[in-house]
Each structure stands twice: as structure tokens, then as C-alpha cells.
């Protein structure tokens, strides 16, 4: 495993397909595998944020002020 590829911001927000493609390329996963990870992450966030928990995602804390996931 070499040094991770540096990913720069684009001139406009990435589409879902572009996001999955960028992650797939950087991780050597297929786009389908990346989509599966995001589907599972969405379920975890909805469950935990729905209970008012703070979730740590990649070193970034995610929380909701209403106690409900959106």
C-alpha cells in the first residue's frame, strides 16, 4: 500500500457518481462496493443521529440539533 492519492476540490460540487468514482479509484474498490459502504453508513447515521448521538465519521463529528436524522 503506497501513499494515498491527494484529492483536490473541483470547481463545482461532485455528483454522487463522481464522488463514488473518486473514492473507488483512490481505494481500489468498485463503485458498487463504495455505494454499499455509503448505503450502510447512511443507515448507521440515521439510526444513531435519530437517537441524538454524536457520530464520528473519519475524524469529523456529525450531530443533529433536532435529534432527528435528515
Strand order of the largest sheet: 1-2
**Which structural class matches the secondary elements?**
mainly alpha
DSSP summary, beta strand count: 2
Q: SSE order in H/E notation? A: HHEE
Q: What proportion of the residues form beta strands (DSSP E)?
A: 5-15%
Shape: globular
Low-confidence sequence ranges: none
Instruction: Indicate the mean pLDDT.
Output: 85
Q: State Rg.
A: 14 Å
Cα end-to-end separation:
36 Å
Number of helices: 2
Biggest sheet record: 2 strands, antiparallel
Helix share bin: 40-55%
Question: Can you describe what's shown?
Answer:
- This protein is mostly helical and 70 residues long.
- It contains 2 helices and 2 strands, in the order ααββ.
- The protein has helices spanning 16-27, 31-50; strands spanning 55-57, 60-62.
- A two-stranded antiparallel ribbon has the order 1-2.
- Strand 1 and strand 2 (60-62) form a beta hairpin.
- The longest helix has 20 residues, at 31-50.
- The radius of gyration is 14 Å and the shape is globular.
- The mean pLDDT is 85.
